[in-house]
Amino acid sequence: MPSRDKLKNRRGKSGERTGEYNSLFGEILDWMLAPLMFVWPISIAIIHNVADDIAHAPYDKVLGDSVYELSRQVRFTPVGAIFVKPPQMRDLFHIDGEDIIYYQVLGGAGELLAGDSEVPDVPDDKPWKPGELYFRGGRVNNEDVRIAYMFQPVTTIPGSYVTVQVAETLNKREALTSRILSGVLLPQFVIIPIAVVLVYFGLGRGLWPLKRLQAVIEKRRPTDLSPIDIRRVPEELRPLITALNDMMLRLEVNLAAQRRFIADAAHQMRTPLTGLKSQAELALLENDPAQIRACMEQILVSATGAAHLINQLLALARAEASTEKVHAVERVELNALFESLIADWVPAARRRHIDLGFERAHVPLHVDANPVLLGEMFKNLIDNAIKYTSYGGVVTVRLKADIRAILEIEDTGPGIPVEDRQRVFERFYRVLGTQVEGSGLGLPIVREIAELHRAEVELLDAPGNGGLIVRVSFPRVVEPVPNDVAALPWPV
Description:
alpha+beta, five-stranded antiparallel β-sheet, 45% helix, elongated
């Protein structure tokens, strides 16, 4: 039988498994041959039983005829039955060199009228009906025999029966069974290995479209993400290729977005860098210390803007590349996290005379999240709120407990028009007329981080005149409440 590719385990120096490889060819071959190897012994047992039945049929007919011949030699008298031995008895029952034949005739009282006493009596649990021929197995002189028997009613004594039995050893039957089995099984021993070889090569030929598909994919250029033509792909592989085409389409869309992002970032970076260069050249041409200081102040403004833009670009790239391997997810309590984060923004709020407040939730709010990314999201939200709120305004950060954990940041700034509330999540898009410097990356970063945490971001009108509420709702993890505080009237 051709060998198959076995499951291979690659192990490192410490003996730990570092990877697993399996063979589709070997897997299919196993599932084809394993049932065959399981069914083959069952088929041999069935064939053996069928061969036994076939071998018994002709010899049982001869054995039954012998019983009928013996029954014809029974004579009935008023006192019972007698057996008249025919002249051809030697020809009827003889040793033929292969089997021994025994016979027995018992009277109505069980007395031996003729034949061999070694033949066992008919067991009580065996079926019987006067005049019917029956067969059973037994043993005579420590040899297995086949026994034919019949009960013949004694016509002169009602209710009395003569038992006639003929037994024959099984040598000829077993020889015939062996010949039948040999005739059936020997061809199988030749055909099955040939079939396995044909299956092996047929399966290899059947999997050839996979190799052709592999060659088509290997010939592609690294930048070619066009769909694979499924017209020549086998029907069983079409769902896989369709899924692969969908993945390549999504990859192409992502790459196109990345290319636009890089182009936009380059364009955005060009403005502060050009300003830095111009102010530096102008400062070199000035001799007046006041003018030089003014140029240096402009350089500081441009450098600050460039640094802010670069930091936001890095934050956005970090959020897009975030995975559990890079940023581990852990159980976070939002009240404690945002209370510690908001303390860092109190000085910025004071410089603009903004009333910065924080409202905790009445119950612990647990979510599965990454604290670093949540901090980045909060930094962009609170930075926008303070930046766009006028002097003397109010910014409120509040947490709410509902089916989800809700973070709201409300300000008294100019708000965002309804028609612009979807576009502000696009990179580098800024609402006109705000008179506030910015990069247009704050809310895109917020949405990117929210999507990583399966959270939703909404922009709502604040109550009163103007203002905006940014609401972020997270999937909430409700932890068991201790028994000593379970009865407290806390809302949930």
